[in-house]
Amino acid sequence: MEDPDTLTALFRQHGLKVTRQRQCIFEILYANPTHSTAESIYVIAKARMPNISLKTVYEILHSLAALGQIHQIDLGTGSARFDPDIHHHHHLVCSSCGRIENIDQDLGLLALTAAERHGFMLSHTEVIFRGLCPDCMAHRTREARDVREV
Questions:
Q1: Whole-prediction pTM value?
Q2: CB neighbours (10 Å) of residue 23?
Q3: What is 87-149's CATH number?
Q4: Element housing 103 (H / E)
Q5: Fewer Cβ close by (within 10 Å): the C or N end of the chain?
């Protein structure tokens, strides 16, 4: 993720106004390089700027995505996520708590035959691995142990 000053310059370069709200979101994303939802970013922004709206946060995030500075991704966790890590990567998603981790392994384009592609011309691959994170596995192990002891 680019720093807030670089994003400010980029917006100006593309003829976009640089508002206090935009600069606030730039700072939040730069300080928190996780797979945030618009709602979680909004909560932080609202504490800094009580008059900011969730709609404004979404508009800023979509502008950043259109400029290629973040990726909007749907990992099946219930809300769109905004990923400031724009290099090509894949994800691990915990099926219990929704924790998300990046996987930097290059899986390349999966080898599909022409028939398997159904006429699609492939440009990239997105892989989502699902399972339990270490914390959720430990929690389930403790619960199972507690049930056996009763």
A1: 0.81
A2: 16
A3: 3.30.1490.190
A4: strand 100-103
A5: C
